[in-house]
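Re-running the complex after MR caught last week's input typo. The corrected sequence lines follow. Everything else is unchanged.
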Amino acid sequence: MKKYKLFKYLLISGLALTATSCSKDFLEIAPYGKSDTGTYYSTDTEVTYALTAAYDMLHSDQLQGWSSPFFIKQLPGDDTNCGGGGESDQSQYQKIDAFKWEPENAGIRAFYSINYYGIYRCNQLINNAKADTPLKKRMIAEAKFLRAYFFFELTTAFGDVPLRLQAASTLTEGIARSPQADVYAQVVKDLNDAIVDLPNKSEYATVDRFRVSKQTAQALLGKTYLFAKDYPKATIAFKAVIDKEGTEVALYPDFSKITREETEFDKESLLEASFISENKNWGNANWDRNADDNRHLQLWGPRGPFVSGTSGIREGWGFNPPTKKLYDAFDPADPRRAATIISKQELATNFGGSFTDGWETEGYIRTKYQTYSAETNDQNGNTPELNFSTNWRLIRYADVLLMAAEAYQKQNKDAEARTEMNKVRARAGMPAITASGDALFTAIVKERQVELAYEGLRFWDLVRWGLADQELKNLGFVKGKHEHFPIPLDEMNGNSLIGSQNPGY
Amino acid sequence: MNKNSHKSCKSHNLHKSKLHKSLFSTFLLLTLCTFSISAANSIKGVVKDAKTNEPLIGVTIQVEGSKSGTITNINGGFSMDVPTSNSVIVVSYIGYISQKISATGKSDFIINLIEDNKNLDEVVVVGYGTKKKSLLTGATSSVTAADMTSSVLRAEQALQGKAAGVTVTPQSGAPGSGMKVKIRGAGSNGSSEPLYIVDGMRTGDINFLAPSDIESMEVLKDAASSAIYGAEGANGVVLIKTKAGKKGQAKIDLNVQFGTQSISKKPSMMNSKQYATFMTEGHAANFPGLPNPTNVDAIGTNWLDQIAENAPSQSHSLTISGGSDKGTYMVSAGYDKQDGVIGGSKASFERITTRVNLSQEVKPWLEVGANIAFTNSKKSSITEDDGFNGVINSALMMDPTTKPTYSPTQLTTYMKGLIAAGNTLLKDANGNYYGLSDNNFLQGELMNPLIRMAIDKGIYTDNKLLTSQYLNLKPFKNFVFTSRVGLDLAFGNYNSWTPSYYANSRSLNTAANVTSNDQKWSTWLWENFASYNYKIGENNITVMAGMSAEKFSYTNLNTNSGKMIKEDDLFRYPDYVDSRKNDIIGGRKEVKSKNSYFGRVSYDYKGKYMLEGTLRRDGSSLFGSKNKYGTFPSISGGWVASEESFWKMEKINFMKVRASWGQNGSLSNLGVDQYRSLITTTGIEYPNGNNVLIPGAEPDLLANAELRWETSEQIDLGLDLKAFNSKLYFTFDAYRKVTKDLLTPSTPALSHGNDAPYWNAGEVTNTGLEFMVGYQDHKSDFTYDVNVNLSLMKNEVTGMNSAVTRIGGSSLPTLGNLTYMELGQPIYYFRGYQNDGIFKNQAQIDAWKTANKITDATYKPVPGDPIVKNNVDDGTISDKDMANIGSPHPDMIIGSNITLGYKNFDLNIFMQGSFGQENFLGFARADNAETNKLTKFYDNRWTAANNVASMPRAGYNGEYLYKSDLMVESGSYLKIRQIQLGYSIPKALAKKVLLSKARMFVSLNDYFTFSKYSGLDPEVGSQNNNAQGIDFGIYPVSKKVLFGLSLSF
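Corrected-run output:
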């Protein structure tokens, strides 16, 4: 029986030990390297970091594969084809270009997602951070601007969209689409809030120049009113920016440099998506939203066979090739043409290079937003394809001037319209426009086409002017359908309150 | 009475029981009685093992239909009286097949008994215990050391074709590659790998195990068998027992094996003439670099010939084992080395395995033991299973007009120009330059595969320690308490470097960099459980209960540095670079814990009626407070009908029916922190105004507090049968396994605006029938055992969250998703366009457009384009017309094993086949028209002259071809896995040289494949669970010729 007792003690202690190890705490593992959402957004540093993550969505061109909103906005337009290796190369882009976009399209899904990712980040910051320090106050204003920007992008592309201003409490919580007017109203509200607390552009230190300023918010406010066709209010907002010409904003003298690195964050540039060369090579490059280089520039480079000559252009993967229509849209005397698009003959004559046409090329090479060797680097083992640092210009002062001109013209204030428009032409080295009335409007349309080519503005300009059918019909545009992207399938399925799809899908 | 006493004599594990004792004495008494009564005819003889010719001691000899009998003595001899001259005697012995022999006209017998490999009285390993096979109520399959043919290099391989219902697909045929093991189909949308338990210790994979160390593998297939593993048993469990020493038998086993491997099939790709013709047809005439069909060499380069080679393999093991009456020991060491048939030493695998298994009875009530295994392995690999950068992918698609190499004096003008421009063109060992597609004609990731191979430098080294120490307390009879502590530690390093090279204008590197990634996994598991066996009369009850705690942690450190000081293998570490400025470092830690309570009650009455219930409750740190714990029950029963007194079918000596139901969980697809909402800073940076990255903090995942286990519920009905004195054996199982609450990436509305966690959505149903039938017998010196197993299976997604139509799986390069999980379809089936032929001419196009009501003006097919089946009538051809074009899941798998023995020769033939699955030809690049293609693209293409074609025109490169069923082929195959001929030297001769056994063999492994598939190997696996069946240029399973020698001292 002694033996039995011994055993009993052993058994009991054994079980007791196991039981102890399996106490409640045993199954509670604190997360490594992550913070609790509930207590975040309290210090200046935390809010700074959280805001940076919202800015991050401006350049997340690889959030869901190749999915650049900046490129997606260009594709339906007539200044570009999709290009690439063939009709199946990155088919999400090919289909957007060809007006074969469906709710399943991965590019459209990404466009929608990226903007809502931005909104979620802004919402978390706006709803959780307290404006109890000057820095936090400014950051909340920045977040409000960004939220307005993301909603503006969404409503432009999709029309009525869910106006989500609070994080959902469960994964299945649905939200109805809000009428575009309500979305515009929220954008205006956020922008007006932001304008109060944002500094002037010049007040930012060099290091903070990537941040949005009072002028950025006023520019977007004007644009919002313009899109909402409230021209008087648009004029007021634009005027607030134009009044600061010289001190806060200005046109850069040399048009050929406006998308190059040397003019980043200068007075012409009101909002950019910032990219950086980061010592990337094929072994260490990210293919997700953590990529910080501008890989789409490489995607957009002319596809081989390509000989650079002295053009300084590197071979790329052939996407976003320019159209003859764009080339022809330029006045042959317009110096902006060579800074935007050259023919392959010009490549040979002026630079000693050569180019062979491939999928969807029309004998032209883009010179704006191009794979210039100077904008990447191959030092220290860097792979130049993966180190382009050119920033996307999302709002440019020249755009503000042309939008202001349009708003004036729509109110029949042709003189004011010409004044603003001719600033842009003068910078380009082009004579002043003297037209008025409908001819002036047509001139503005043309001016936007050539001044703002490859900036993702053309397609929705044509849509809001009602010119899309006329200009894009031969490319596949169907009136009454393609004015908006379809709501992505995953939103239609996942959101129980989404309601009906856009017409035509 | 007779039957019972006979049975109990055979049973080892009951030898201590009172029941047995009493029966045995009764039996002896009866025997004596018989002797005293009758004294008619006297017979004598000797009983031997048919194979070894050794005498067998204690064999029961009985007169059929009477109670009289005897047992053999120490020399295997016996003598007894039989009542009449035409009596039949029954010779039976545990572990051997019983024989009936007519005693007519004969008095001196030499009886050879055949070992019964399918013995029902053998004791098999079950979860937390052992059980007599005849009492099992669940569906299990056993693979024993004997089944593990001496030439198997990996433990999982031993399961292929040997166990009904178990699908084993190599992830790749490259040496050292893992295998995907699925028990009863893909039961999950992520990994469906079973749980591996080695000597009681759970472990992630069994890569580290030397097959020669394995005693047995038990595959627990139904819910009742695996429910004792609760939260992790849903995909089945493989219980592995390693070899232990045997008491009183000191033994030395040495195995040596050498082999040579070669590639078994090379797909038929276009030769250079065909290629040049095809490209000229497909491209504009002035396309730079376009090869001229009249100038090219007729055949050109067969790139597969260039990369394939005959590769050696070797495998050795030494095992020393034995034991005294108080303890046993087993010490082993092994070494394996295998080069690849593609890549040679650059795709090699080298492994050193060591093991010590000990057990000691310290006190009559205390036994301790330890199983300690340490394995070091090194795998060099070339890039494969990759639609962009795979070596084989490049070999299949590289243009055949380019020569493999060019001597420096015969370079093309294009290559000379590149060298002059300062590009690094690589050379082979002889100083010849690897050929480049002329004038940059073929470009992109696809390149001369010899360059691909030259720039592949990856080496993965792994050190793994798996230990389990236990103590068994036996304080009183029929009671055992076990406490077991296990450690599973694995340390891996991946080291690679990229040299500078120029392959074409889009694939080049200008400065060499190194990658070195360290990973560490560490798990401890502590289990305490007790079992008690209790008897009341004929009622036998065993109760087992226990608890378990487990903690898992993972850390890694990833580095990338450059530029290398010198481009040399000896400089492949981060210290040997010219700058610290380019360093990239990353690392993280993950911890999981689990604790569990489990119990089982087994009951049987007379070994005739069996009932068993199990219950397990698991708690895991992966879940929030709402669902931390899950409970998993099972119940099963069995009836041995042949034990009934009314059983009249004498020929059928054993028949058992089984039924089981149970639930299991799975969480293998779940990472940490899925249930809570956190803020992370990892990787989030944004460039500031000075072009310097500043850190950001983003919400990690949306929270899912509702997250819970994935639960699989399974019903199994089974039948085990033995007939003709157990010469014929048969097992049948039917099952239906429904996995509910699948852990899938959630798909909340996109407007939620963040990365989604996993959630429980979806249901997969696997149903199947499993048959196993075999026959074993002997005719004097000739022994044979033939068996076949066959499984019919069906996989279907039977539930999906309404929020999602289909979940995307794997993608094709630049074409987007191909595989999907969708309601009513097999899991991760291929979704694409259904082909309806090729447009002959414009008239047909116009007619077709009218017939299909195509109103979309932008849809403008030309003659030679594929006709897409217009499944949705919406006026155009679009994504919506896509449908199921194939499934990677087989409908039927079979395995057949034939073992023949004649005197000292043995022959084993093993076949395995898989039918009904489809493969997708993924080695095609829609975005790269210049790639080479299968000859069927050439032979069957549309041309103006031959407009009745089954393949499109040469210039067609759209997704209606590359994402259509034109790229799908049957993956069905039958492989003769092994033909092995062995010879054992005669015992007497062996004894002279101190050997107890010496066998040599020659074996053809994976030598014959019967399949219609165009690719290298119909067995298209992948590391990626949702890319099964997509052939990106699969690394083929090599065919092997092996020579081996086994010596036992």
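None of the earlier attempt is carried over here. The longest helix of chain B spans residues 18-37. Chain B touches chain A through 118 residues (CB under 8 Å).
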